[in-house]
Amino acid sequence: MANITCLSIEPPSISYDTFTDSHYQGANLYVPYGCENVYRWTDVWEQFFDVFELPDGIIDVNADDNDNITIYDLSGRKSAVLHKGINIVNGKKVLIR
Question: Are strands 78-79 and 85-89 parallel, antiparallel or unpaired?
């Protein structure tokens, strides 16, 4: 089944039909370190059976302080957005699946 990663510390507002029932029942939801309970108690996100915290140090790329975020790919090219795979965000590795 699929893995879903949400890097926002505050769960974004979504509607129930954003994901399918099979996602809610079978996908692994990965959230920032320390945010598992917030997601488990937030409307719609609470539908996910399996919620896991990412390791400490993965940052919230949706934070208000976006002016201070720099993203690079593994070839050292600066990017404006995160891509699938490994990204370097403010000097830390971030895996996007």
Answer: unpaired
